[in-house]
Amino acid sequence: MFHRVNVASLLMIVLMNKMEYATDILKCLLLRLVDKSVISKHPQLMLRRTESVVEKMLTNYMAICMYDYLKEYAGSSLFLLFKAIKHQIEKGLVDAITHDARYSISEERLLHEQISHSVVMLHIVQDDLDEKVQCKVLDWDTISQVKSKILDALFKNTPFSMRPTIHEVDLEWRHGRGGHLILQDEDLTTKTTNGWRRLNTLAHYGVKESAVMSLVARQNDSYNLQYSNKLQPPYNNCTLINIDYSHRLFAPTSSNYTKLPINTPPMRPNAKFKYFESSGDHA
């Protein structure tokens, strides 16, 4: 499914400057899809699930054709709708790996697990801000999810392309006089069960109501060395291999877990990496 979506998107990118040719191709493919759907058991399901390349191509084609209209007229209303849905979804738990949500509007992405949690109000202090900014999060949010919500609160009137990303900042917990602690999704305090590491949450660190937080520039420590030099974190279903040590880091799609080998050796400076697609489960 994912590969077909990518193929459709790449095809439309290639054909963007030849829209007449793209229209002819799309018409031909749609006619074949209609003929195929008519003889199927459930013809009414056509165009509902975007299961074929042509269906995703049609979505991209419509988006390109409607770009000017969306930009000039409907864009602001759609943005408000997006923000409203996002706000509603983030009221409940969202799986950090699969992105299944407790308050999802899609039944296929519904988080069925019942997990007790509570709302935590954070006070955000930044050197360039005169006043504290309040941000409502959940105690079971991962550190990356908390950073994302704080960025939304701090840069709510800033274009997304001009905002820092969660990979460019660290979350600093300020407690008492001179008490500063950098919170991370994975660190030396991360709990491991049967070879699986649970991503750290606010509850893991014991963060309580009215805690004072701040976003600071990302620090390159030994634990996050693989993310330095503008390397992005490993993508889902990919394997990161340190050639010097034949050392593997797995990033499966299991809920809020990342499988790592125990007693990971330190990485050498200037180590080379390659990404390989994972075809199945790893022992």
UniProtKB/TrEMBL annotation:
Signal sequence: where? 1-22
Q: Which GO terms describe its cellular component?
A: plasma membrane; semaphorin receptor complex
Q: Does the keyword Metal-binding apply?
A: no
GO biological-process terms attached to the record: motor neuron axon guidance; negative regulation of cell adhesion; positive regulation of axonogenesis; regulation of cell migration; regulation of cell shape; sensory neuron axon guidance
Superkingdom classification of source = Eukaryota
User: What are the residue boundaries of the Plexin cytoplasmic RasGAP domain, all occurrences included?
Assistant: 3-156
**UniProt keyword annotations, A-Z:** Signal
Question: What SUPFAM superfamilies has UniProt attached to this entry?
Answer: GTPase activation domain, GAP
For molecular function, the Gene Ontology terms on record are: semaphorin receptor activity
What's the protein here called?
Answer: Plexin cytoplasmic RasGAP domain-containing protein
Query: Which organism's genome codes for this protein?
Result: Glossina palpalis gambiensis
